[in-house]
Amino acid sequence: MKTTMKKLLPLALAALLSPPTPCAPQDPAGFGEARLGLDQQLIEAVEELNTLRQTIVSEKLPLSRELTALERQLSELRAEYQATTRQLDGRTLDLSNLRTEIRSREAENGYLSNLFDEYLRGFESRLHITELQRYEDQLERTKLAAEDSGLEEVEVFARQVELIALSIERLDEALGGTTFEGEAVDASGIVNRGVFALVGPAALFLPEGGSEATLAEQRLGSLQPAALPFGDPADAAAAADLITAGAGLMPFDPTLGNALKIEATEESLLEHVQKGGAVMIPIFAMAGLALLFAVYKWLSMAFIGMPKEKRVAALLEAVGERDEDAVKRHVGVIKGPIGSMLARGVDHLREPRELVEEVLYEKVLTTRLELNSFLPFIAICAASAPLLGLLGTVTGIINTFKMITVFGSGDVKSLSGGISEALITTKFGLIVAIPSLLLHAFLSRKARRIVDQMEKTAVAFTNQLGRAHYADEDEARAARRPQPAPTPADLPHTSLEARIGELAAEQECASKALQESRRELVLLQQELQAQEA
């Protein structure tokens, strides 16, 4: 039906809309027939159109209902799609939150695992050396659980929690003490099996079949507990009774074995010196020689007599009074180098003052050389001893590096020899240098004080001698004294220029003599400094 309507509808529309065909004037009858035919066709087309419209109207209502039902179904599907989309978004959000929570739980698990591992390491490090045998299996089982890929995470945590529970039980046992079996190494190196008693940080050991207990401590470089005997047999017997009976008196070492370790490190002076090596020989040789010369110089200076000021003052007073007998009597009483110096000055009492000064100064120089003898050697010892100690330090470090090359840096005992040599030689070098330096300063100061006193007395003697004005010396000085130069007024005008030339020549000679004296003085000072050095 729909197909027929689709075919007739275009024909009817074409007939209605197409313009009428012009009729040929020569054929009116044919035109009428054609018009009748067309009218008939139009009537039929209109009837068919009406029929088609009725058919459309009759079919439109069910289609409208069907369309409405389909639109309603589409709306329901859209609502269902939106609900499904919202549900999917919610599920996606829930999944994202779940993933975030899973990551958070994984981080917490990792944190807890790190805490358990850290607790395991701390627990193992805090165990007494005697407890390592007791908890060895549990510690190994917990360590391997973390590395075993066949175990689930829950099983790994379970083993770690078991270790924590075991550590809590250990705390309870530590309060009242506990006993357990194990092995320990005695002083002779034999491994004995017995019973350990652990009370707090103190541990005792009683070997099987033994009657005396020992301390159980850790020995350097050993993973086995060391059985250290008690110094008092009564303590050993009391410790054995405590382990056997489970109650009693317990000998306690407040140092936890450190006292025994320190006692084991003690050594004699000879052993300590032998660790320093061959460099200790010259160090001790210099120490002995420096001490010997210092004692000798101190004894020699200690017996040097220093005159009293009253006697020196009496001598100077006699020199000022020109009483030669009194001068000789007073100088014979004064002892020591000052007395010898004054005696030589008295022997040249009537000589010129410059000669007396030279005689006194000669005695001062001689005494200074005698007093300063052997003191430079003490100074050399004070300066050389630290250098020898440094030499021993360098050789010790070289030996240490040789040991490191051979044995590596893990064995401390193999390195202790070189380190001991390095430190001991430096120590004894300073021990020798510091007293030698102090002795040299003390003796030098004492010698300088004696020389200063001699110089002071010599200056006072020469000054007093200059003020005395002995007759012979006065005449000699008067003879040597130059005549006063005439003034220009006393000279004739014609000879004034000649006199000025003479004065200039005399001034030049005096300047040359002064320069020569200064040169001799500088040479003398240099000689004195060389002698003091």
Provide the descriptors you would attach to this structure in a database record:
533 residues; 16 helices; alpha+beta; elongated; 5-stranded antiparallel β-sheet
Describe the protein.
A five-stranded antiparallel beta sheet has the order 1-2-3-4-5, sandwiched between helices. Helix 1 packs across helix 2, helix 8 runs antiparallel to helix 13 (375-407) and helix 9 (309-320) runs parallel beside helix 14 (413-468). The chain is built from 16 helices and five strands. Helix content is 73%, strand content 6%. The protein has helices spanning 2-17, 28-126, 136-147, 153-176, 233-245, 258-265, 269-274, 280-302, 309-320, 324-333, 336-347, 353-371, 375-407, 413-468, 471-480, 496-532, and strands spanning 178-185, 191-199, 202-207, 214-218, 225-228. It folds into four domains: 2-14 and 36-116; 127-265, no CATH class; 280-482, no CATH class; 496-533.
Question: How many distinct beta strands?
Answer: 5
**What structural category arises from helix and sheet content?**
alpha+beta
State Rg: 64 Å
Element order, helices and strands? HHHHEEEEEHHHHHHHHHHHH
Mean pLDDT: 77
Q: Helicity level, as a percent range?
A: over 70%
Number of helices, counting only DSSP H or I runs of 4 residues or more: 16
- Unreliable spans: 1-8, 20-26, 470-477, 485-494
